[in-house]
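Hi,

I'm pasting everything inline rather than attaching a file, because the server keeps stripping attachments. The sequence lines come first, and each chain or strand is labelled.
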Amino acid sequence: MKQGPLPKSVDARKACIKALELSGSVKASALSRLASVVSCEDTTISASLRFLRDEQRRFVVSTQVAGKVEVRCERCLEFMPLEVEAQSSLMLCSSDERAQQCPSHYEPLVYTGEELDLYEVIEEELLLALPVAPMHDSQCVEAVPEAVTELRVEDRKPSPFAVLANLTNDSKES
Ligand SMILES: [Zn+2]
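And the predicted assembly:
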């Protein structure tokens, strides 16, 4: 299915009342925080957002985002492709206090203005979905130069100054 571009922003409360459903694509390069942590020059993110009011009359945005980016493998430091996808149910909260009372099956989204920046919402969802330490499934560790490994072992040795500091402390206590 071919998707047109997603609108940049929407009046979220009105959208919930109208039970609006939006889906479309966003160029990842337009999401500056995402673009600063992954490589995603030609990447298109597809997103769909469903605005609704739940049985408690809460304003809810249910989101689904997906895209293919490139992240650096923590082991060999090479870029690797990664499919990112995330789904959330966000509850619009008019203040931080309201956000603290948000039921646990919703993610609070503090929203005071009239226009909700959909790009920001999508970007946040993608950033949260990124793995903390991405790594190749295969053993790519051979690619790590030995010098780097040695350096890391070296780092773990206590520095002579730290040992000296301990000695000084001990002598003060006795
Ligand atoms: Zn790797």
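The chain has a mean pLDDT of 85.

If the labels don't parse on your end, tell me and I'll reformat.
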